[in-house]
Write a structure and sequence with these properties.
OB fold (Dihydrolipoamide Acetyltransferase, E2P), two-stranded antiparallel ribbon, about 10% helix, globular, mainly beta, five-stranded antiparallel beta sheet, about 45% strand
Amino acid sequence: MVSYDDFKKLDIRIGKVIACEKIENADKLLRLEVDFGPLENDSSRQEIRQIVSGLALYYKPEELIGKQLPFLYNLEPRTFRGIESQGMLVAVNAQGQPVLLQPDKEIPLGSKIC
């Protein structure tokens, strides 16, 4: 069990995958470039983050490009195979396999999950 105060600390936002590639010499890892919409302090520029995800055994890079997906936005950066990940893709574990969660319609990038 986690407290509501702990839950409130999670910042989960919708981002759009604009690029995706398999990481060389890593069977499970993909490098995603994710657009989170306009920067909060400069709306003329988009916030693009690099996120590493362990979905390569289940999804081809081209299957993810263009999808709006939920990401844990305020996760401390972590490095995988020399590549910094600036967040985490949120998916469902369905009988041992990840399944993507998607909004049922197009929504503004950076929208927070509440």
